[in-house]
Design brief:
The protein has eleven helices and 14 strands. It is elongated. The chain has a seven-stranded mixed beta sheet with strand order 2-3-1-4-7-6-5. Strands 10-9-8-11-12-14-13 form a seven-stranded mixed beta sheet, with helices on one face. The chain is α/β, with parallel strands linked by helices.
């Protein structure tokens, strides 16, 4: 079985969460950098990484890395790489994305076109042809330049891993599924604890939590580019991985996961998305204003993505909204509140300084993950009676 070095990009600030996931899957980490984790694995690891990792954005096979300070050097060193080991004669190949940080080569379009030309020159000689039809399977590449070090990865995923396949309908500003999963994993919440999202939107937090509680792999209901690369990864590896994922699912678990939203339409969307994810029986959705947030039991978790006030007309309502969140949270004896927002005055308006505050980049937007931690439940207490 072939051995690879695999690159898993993720949201900036969440590398440690992804690293832990990869280790728990049984693979050795080779490097952790801003926005990505690199690890060693075989063909099976490509499949399992795509199917099981909740916080990664995609799985790339590392083709090579080298230093380049001129476009001539970039061309020559790209041409030296063994592209024929990855791309068949009829394959469609291109540099889908190039990112450059603190490097002398900084133009994405120039990097993309020069590397494509170098790949073509190499493969023309190997396959003894002058023209590539490129009418076969797709082989997109992603290139990272950091301080003149070029790293090239072959994308096995296709559509980003945050697209689990269940979210057909969304809110105006939905949180990405892999980001929601990572934030839940940063909390002490487990499937037998209470979880409420009072701004559930299209239901992402409750659905991701329910999938975790049921041990449902995030990628088991979608497809991946590398499924069509039998010369690199045997189809049997994909079948075995999907069988493994199916065997692990347990929908008989008892949960107390709730999603509220003030908008009836969003509650309907959440219910439909949960049904498509196969976890609708594990979540209770209802139309409810945040001012009505309450729960009879103790030691629960609020994990939520409240409005940030991205639009100017919404900003004037933020102070009152966050004050209401603070008021309702104070009424929930022994609960914990975990909240992602870009609203700078969140702590002031909630009326309490967060116990922890983690900076996370949601796309290009700087956000904060505020963590207001409640007490731990007594050890002997039966959590099903909380």
């Amino acid at each position: 079985m072939r051995k690879f070095e695999l690159i898993a990009p993720c949201h900036f600030g969440l590398e440690a969460v992804l690293k832990k996931e990869i280790i728990e899957l049984g693979y050795d980490i080779s490097q952790v950098e801003d926005g990505r984790v690199t690890f060693f694995g075989d063909e099976e690891a490509v499949c399992r990484g795509n199917v099981f990792l909740r916080t990664a954005e995609r799985i790339l096979i590392k083709v090579g890395s080298f230093k380049a300070t001129t476009y001539e050097e970039l061309f020559d060193k790209t041409k030296e790489l063994p592209w024929e080991d990855f791309i068949p004669r009829e394959g469609k190949f291109w540099v889908a994305k190039a990112a450059s940080v603190k490097s002398r080569l900084f133009s994405p379009s120039d990097i993309q076109s020069i590397m494509k030309k170098a790949m073509v020159e190499r493969l023309k000689k190997v396959y003894h042809i002058n023209w590539f039809e490129e009418n076969g399977e797709s082989f997109p590449l992603r290139v990272f330049l950091l301080k003149d070090e070029v790293t090239i990865g072959l994308d096995t995923t296709g559509e980003s891993l945050h697209k689990r396949g269940y979210r057909k309908l969304t809110a105006k500003a939905p949180i990405a599924e892999n980001l929601a999963a990572a934030l839940i994993m940063l909390t002490p919440w487990r499937g037998d604890r209470i979880l409420v999202d009072p701004f559930c939107g299209s239901g992402t937090f409750p659905i991701e939590a329910a999938m975790m509680a049921a041990n449902m792999a995030p990628g088991m209901n979608r497809e991946f580019l590398a499924e069509n690369w039998p010369h690199l990864i045997a189809r049997k590896e994909w079948y075995d991985t999907m069988d493994e994922a199916a065997d692990l699912v347990d929908l008989s678990v008892k949960t107390d996961i709730q999603g509220y939203d003030a908008d009836d339409r969003m509650v309907s969307i959440s219910r439909e998305n949960a049904r498509l994810a196969g976890v609708d029986k594990l979540i209770h959705f209802q139309t409810r204003e945040v001012a009505e947030l309450s729960h009879a039991k103790k030691y629960g978790f609020i994990i939520t993505n409240p409005p940030y006030g991205e639009r100017l007309e919404d900003k004037k309502n933020l102070k009152a909204l966050y004050e209401t969140i603070g008021e309702r949270y104070r009424q929930l004896d022994s609960w914990s509140l975990y909240m992602i927002t870009s609203y700078e005055d969140a702590q002031r308006d909630i009326g309490r300084k967060a116990d922890k505050n983690r900076k996370i980049y949601n796309g290009m937007m700087k956000t904060y993950f505020y963590q207001f931690q409640g007490p731990r439940p007594p050890r002997r207490e039966n959590r099903n009676d909380e």
